[in-house]
Amino acid sequence: MTSMTRTRWWILTLLFFITTINYLDRIVLSVLIPVIRQDLHITTEHYSYVTGAFQMAYTIGFIFMGRLIDRYGTRLGYSVAIAFWSAAAVLHALVRSTVSLAFWRAMLGFGESGNFPAAVKAVTEWFPKKDRALATGLFNAGTNVASMVGPPVFVWMNASFGWRASFAITGGLGFVWLILWVLLYRLPEMHPHVNQAELDYIHSDGPESKTQSKMGWGAVLRYKQTSAFALAKFLTDPVWWFYLFWLPPYLYDVRKFNLEEIAWALPAIYLMADFGSVMGGWLSGHFIRIGWTNARARKVTMALSACLMPIAATAVLVPNAVVVVLLMSLATAGHQAWSANLYTTTTDVFPKRAVASVTGIGGCAGGLGGVIISSLVPGFVIAHFGYKPVFLMMGVLHLSALVIVHKMMGDMKPVEE
What we know:
- This protein has 417 residues and is an all-alpha fold.
- It folds into two domains: 1-206, Growth Hormone, Chain: A (Up-down Bundle), CATH 1.20.1250.20; 223-412, MFS general substrate transporter like domains (Growth Hormone, Chain: A, Up-down Bundle), CATH 1.20.1250.
- Helix content is 82%, strand content 0%.
- Helix 12 packs antiparallel against helix 13 (294-313).
């Protein structure tokens, strides 16, 4: 009997590296801002405008990119997104003022919003339901790899070539992977390196109904499952953004970590985020393999992940620095395990032609939540009451979102028009 080809895992490798590059382009500014601030004379207030420009464009871009990818297909839609954000990243090297920097940050955010709708849709096209959460967890791990390896690499690049070249080099990587994407990505049934055994495995869930395959973008807005996904993203995405933005100053200002201590603490925390991303995806897939329904497998895994968050939030109450890092690591791992499964719920419920649109709607809601819950609220509360109330609040948002997913997504059966 002919052995099954494994082309789907090579496609997933592409998604992993593209996602890693996506985050490298995103974080280079925050790593090199001390140098850029001196060169362009950027104040703290101006820097907040620059980061806000990225966040707002990223939020708005999800709607447009999700629709683009569903309408024109994953190969072309993802290509447009990669080219757009890579060009914007390279053009950071030419900025001469805060205004031009904010403009290119906004363009970067708009383009980068296409990454997750396209990657999740590609997973839907290449993996059966029992493998999708694991596949999502694996490509999503690229975000944490970028956060671990990016800072030291950027520091070296700045010392060797300057901060402008750092943007140009990092952005240029996107064009390299764009070429590989265009050359290598096809739908499974059109790919020359997929044999019948692998194709049968990919399509083992059975064909979609005709009504499903014709579902348009406007139709998904009528479903409560879309609202459930969007509300869950609105509540839980800000937790990730909060840890990303506020954890370093918390460790520095409150826990009195020095730069060397932060240098070992942050990679350890993001390494655990990678572990959570992969394990969360594997666990729900394991449950499906032993006979659980998709709904039960996803919800139990998400419940376990959500229960980690209030435990992790107690980090602000303990005195020992090592325990603090361990608990913070639990938070990032729990969130990424949750995220791998939450993304996958869209592939369980909606047809392939609608997945990018639904993911885009949810991403937009998550971005809006990020602006409100991880930027505006913490800034006020921390200034007046300290970090403890905010960390404790972040500990309960996943549990709140779990109730919404459970009530509104129900048995997660595929929807019909």
